[in-house]
User: What shape does this take?
Amino acid sequence: QVQLVESGGGSVQAGGSLRLSCTASGRTFDHNNYAMGWFRQAPGKEREFVASINWNGDSTSYSDSVKGRFAISRDNARNTVTLQMNKLKPEDTAIYYCARAYTPTANQNSYDYGSWGQGTQVTVSS
Assistant: This one.
């Protein structure tokens, strides 16, 4: 199994930026075989897809709500995945989760992901 730990959350004013990081530990020898994703969950709402990146980082996907504002990247040598969040809105307030998929490619379906981090809080004030 692999352990995923998110960091970089916090509070920011609307229009500001945050960078979230996800570091994998434990079973990482084959980590670059798997797609990675970011999901978020706002209070009282279901967990929703934010972004994903395939096994070698040459393909990314984004939800319509964050497209053009967020960017996902990965560094397989460091076992890290990053979510750069720009032009943040109050609607982006949520707990953000890093996840690893079962397969080299994956997109918006949470059931495609088998390992999850504990989450990091992002709060955007108006």
About this structure: The longest strand covers residues 18-26. Residues 4 and 47 are 17 Å apart (CA to CA).
